[in-house]
User: Which sequence fits this backbone?
């Protein structure tokens, strides 16, 4: 299956470059794959809600760790570059179960309910907002 180009959004270095923060350390270009939870998806280019954090679930990320940021901000090549990747079971479960939040997938339901009981809060669908 090939994704239509209208569903691929290229971002700049601000969004597609990972580092450990403002300081020194390993860093590199990255890519993230998001799932659109809105039922009426349409074209991302025409969307007014690209920044709506409730709309998107990050299901996978890749960091191409190839640089070390120096104290002066310059980048030097790492001696041993690598790829750091993350794709959690709860992320894929959320998408496959048609949920809009990872805390709503079955992997977290019992944990979230148990914590709500410990906090003596009445169970609500959005109890994860307590955390």
Assistant:
């Amino acid at each position: 299956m090939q994704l239509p180009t209208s569903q691929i959004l290229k971002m700049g270095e601000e969004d597609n470059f990972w580092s450990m923060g403002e300081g020194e350390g390993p860093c590199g270009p990255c890519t993230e794959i998001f799932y659109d939870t809105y039922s009426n998806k349409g074209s991302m280019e025409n969307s007014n809600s690209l920044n709506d954090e409730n709309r998107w679930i990050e299901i996978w990320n890749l960091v191409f760790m190839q640089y070390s940021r120096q104290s002066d901000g310059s980048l030097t090549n790492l001696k041993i570059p690598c790829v750091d990747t993350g794709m959690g079971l709860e992320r894929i479960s959320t998408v496959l179960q048609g949920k809009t939040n990872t805390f709503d997938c079955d992997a977290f339901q019992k944990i979230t309910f148990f914590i709500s009981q410990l906090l003596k809060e009445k169970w609500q669908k959005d109890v994860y907002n307590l955390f």
Summary: The mean pLDDT is 79.
